[in-house]
Amino acid sequence: MKNPQLNRLEQQVSATLQEGDVLFISIDAFLYKQVAKGTGSWCSHVGFAIKENNQWLVVESKVPVVSKTPLRKFLSRTCNGEVMVRRLKQPLTATEIEQLKQSADKLSATLPTTLYHLGFDFDSKRQFCSKFVHLVYKDALGIALGKAQTLEQLLQENPQASVRFWRCWFLGFIPWKRQTLTPASQINDPQLNTVFCTV
Question: In sequence order, what are the beta bridge partners of 194?
Fold first, then answer.
């Protein structure tokens, strides 16, 4: 993305954001494109917004670890300026926002729980983007964003997914009963309203 386009996107998103908003982007990398294709969505990555020292940050589980990423850097990773901002229908209080931050810090505090899981195993101690957002909101607010499902269910629901790719990714054997949770299940979660979208 060229700087003028990124400048404009950053300004637009910043003007819209509230703490606790969930941000969805599409990362231009082969694995992430397969994630999007396999879930029938344009989106392949998710994090949520907080503000520290008057700067917007996106708390995200990414390779290799959970981090707080400046908003501009987060947006710079999306394809063609694709971004969506979604917000809980019930406004968050200052106390709830603080609870979100504390839960994120708690989940990010120690290895291996902060390491990214490239096998997308929901039951692992390690994180991946949508699982991290799900766990933080569940711990802080008692709200479950997105739904866990087995890889078998996910691929049955999305016949356009490349089973050949996932078989190769899992070294020849897809763990069909493995529970996972996708950004697509969160982007479609009825508990959220869309407040900004370029897609």
Answer: 86
CB atoms within 10 A of CB 101: 19
Three-class secondary structure of residue 9 per DSSP: helix
Least confident of 8-22, 98-112, 132-146, 157-171: 98-112
Number of H helices, E strands in the chain: 8, 8
Q: For the chain, how are helix, strand and coil distributed in percent, rounded to 5?
A: 40, 25, 35
Residue 152 CA to its chain's centroid (Å): 21
- CA angle 164–165–170, rounded 5-degree value: 100
Q: Which of 17, 18, 77, 16 is nearest to 46 (CA)?
A: 77
DSSP letter for 22, please.
Answer: E
Query: What does the pLDDT average to over 94-102?
Result: 97
Per-residue tokens: 80: 């063609």
Q: Considering the chain, what percentage of its residues have pLDDT values greater than 70?
A: 98
Residue that is written with structure tokens 């971004």 in the block: 83
Which residues are paired to 68 by β-bridges? 59
- CB 192 within 8 Å of CB 86: yes
pLDDT value for 30: 86
Contacts of 158 (CB under 8 A, 6+ apart): 38, 39, 40
pLDDT of residue 112: 67
Q: What is the dihedral of CA 57, 41, 132, 135, to 10 degrees?
A: 120
